[in-house]
Amino acid sequence: MACKLGKSFPQKLKLLLIVACLGSVLTWIVVHNMQDLLRDVYPQPLAKTLQRWVGVQMVPRDPHCPPLVSPTPTTRPLCPFLSPYLRGAVGLKFDAQLTFKQVQKNNPKVREGRYGPQECHPVQRVAILIPYRNRERHLLYLLEHLHPFLQRQLLEYGIYIINQAGNGVFNRAKLLNVGFLESLKEHQWDCFIFHDVDLVPENDFNLYLCDHEPKHLVVGRNATGYKLRYKGYFGGATAMTKEQFTRVNGFSNRYWGWGGEDDDLRIRVQQQKMKVVRPPLEIARYTMTFHTRDHGNEVNPVRMELLKKVSQVWSKDGLNSCAYKVLSVEHNPLYINITVDIGGPRHNPKVAV
Q1: What span, in angstroms and rounded, lies between the C-alpha atoms of 31 and 122?
Q2: CA atoms 102, 108, 114, 119: torsion sign
Q3: Cross-strand pairs, 244
Q4: CA-based, 20 to 30 A from 52: which of 12, 200, 258, 308?
Q5: Distance, CA of 72 to CA of 68 (rounded, Å)
């Protein structure tokens, strides 16, 4: 159907109709391309789930139709939202003899912890932020699976390990604040994945992209029988845009030890009139690499008291109050390592309940 403009139309109305027509064409192209990808790549049961999720109704398309978009030789097309390289659920194996050199050899296109597709422009630039201390084997297993996982999704990404120096009480949330602030000094990332080192994604249809609302990626994991831990759970791996994370003032810096910081972040999100979205349970599945609780990361005994005060302190406790000292930044072949001194509870008098 063509859009025809008569001479009697005012100039502004002509422009408006042209924009409307172009918008309709672009929408049609995106929807039909997504339909092709869903039909050709996804297993049938999963395709039906994803249709419900993204709101795309599958319809047959004439196989003799020419390609809808023909990129010119001098430009790269935008990467598809659903990459044709996705495999779905894969069986995870953890080789006790695995080395970092082997993982590096298997990912030759990763340079200093970063990767970008050459065939197309990525939809988003994604920073993976991993709080860390003394978990080398877990990190190795995660990198082994996460690098190819992200490459199959055609993402431009960087993996940042935020390594807490010393043997003091661990502070996951503050390390993630540091990772957010320091990674932006290197690159203009669009999306941030706050990711635990001991959780490995099982299905690459679980897209590591940010959404219009903060996104929780870990709907199920082996340790909980592939069920959500509890209704308001917002931990393990979450995705937020720069704007979303800044709007809530990041994580609280006051959670020393295990527990509470992810619930604090969820409360901040809700107070800013945002809501948490999740992928379907069928694809948002993770394997937790088991371990005993780390020394220095014992359960935080005051976490419940801190949670009661989120509404009072969130605007003063977060990105705008994150004090730390970067000790080193190393661009290793598979990741960027940021070693940081974040002090401890005794250096943060304002953390008192």
Answers
A1: 18
A2: negative
A3: none
A4: 200
A5: 13
Q: Which residues contact 263 (CB under 8 A, 6 or more apart)?
A: 232, 234, 235, 307
Distance CA 160, CA 145 (A): 16
pLDDT of amino acid 56: 34
**SS3 breakdown of the chain: % helix, strand, coil, rounded to 5?**
35, 15, 50
Gap between the Cα atoms of 90 and 243, Å rounded? 33
Percent of the chain predicted with pLDDT > 90: 66
Cα separations in angstroms, 300 against 44, 172, 304, 333: 45, 12, 9, 35
Among 161, 165, 209, 210, residue whose Cα is nearest residue 182: 161
How buried is residue 324: exposed, middle or buried, by Cβ count under 10 Å (0-12/13-18/19+)?
buried
Coil vs helix vs strand at 211: coil
Number of other CB atoms surrounding residue 221 within 10 Å? 23
From 271, 268, 270, 249, select the one nearest 260 (Cα to Cα). 268
Q: What is the rounded average pLDDT of the residues 303-315?
A: 92
What burial class does residue 27 get, using C-beta atoms within 10 Å of its C-beta: 0-12 exposed, 13-18 middle, 19+ buried? exposed
Please list the active-site residues. 196, 198, 258, 261-262, 288, 291, 293
**Average pLDDT of span 315-334:** 97
Note whether 183 and 169 are within 8 A (CB): no
Helices (H), 153-208: 172-183
User: SS3 of 339, please?
Assistant: strand
Q: Tokens 């401890």 belong to which residue?
A: 344
Q: Say what the pLDDT of residue 299 is.
A: 78
pTM of the complete model:
0.78
Task: Output phi, psi for 185, to 5 deg.
Answer: -75, -20
Which two three-digit tokens encode residue 119? 């065939």
3-state helix/strand/coil string of 138-207:
HHHHHHHHHHHHHHHCCCEEEEEEEEECCCCCCCHHHHHHHHHHHHCCCCCCCEEEEECCCEEECECCCC
pLDDT tens digits, one per residue of 236-278: 999 999 999 999 999 999 999 878 899 999 999 999 999 999 9
Residue 191's identity, in one-letter code, is C
Q: Say which residue the tokens 């409307």 belong to.
A: 20
Name the strand (E) or helix (H) holding 330: strand 325-331
